[in-house]
Write a structure and sequence with these properties.
The chain is mainly alpha-helical and 74 residues long. The chain has three helices and no strands. It has one domain (16-73). The chain is extended.
């Protein structure tokens, strides 16, 4: 990080089957959810779409649960 002087190490996996599976899951989720997270969060909320409000709340709840599990359980 620039301001703190700390270095960030990052490992990128080049596991092609895993990347293909992840891409397919993202595509399926976009179709199943009638749009992507940014589409619901930016465009849908600005149009006051009820579906987008529920979708964005669901995305946020899933993110909160994931962070809690990763930091405190796993």
């Amino acid at each position: 990080m620039y301001f703190t002087g700390a270095e960030i190490t990052q490992t990128v996996s080049s596991n092609v089957p895993l990347m293909i599976a992840a891409g397919l899951l993202v595509g399926f989720g976009s179709i199943y959810g009638n749009g992507c997270t940014s589409g619901h969060g930016v465009c849908g909320l600005s149009r006051l779409s009820g579906r987008s409000m529920v979708a964005t709340a669901t995305f946020m709840a899933a993110a909160f649960v994931t962070v809690f599990l990763v930091r405190h359980v796993i």
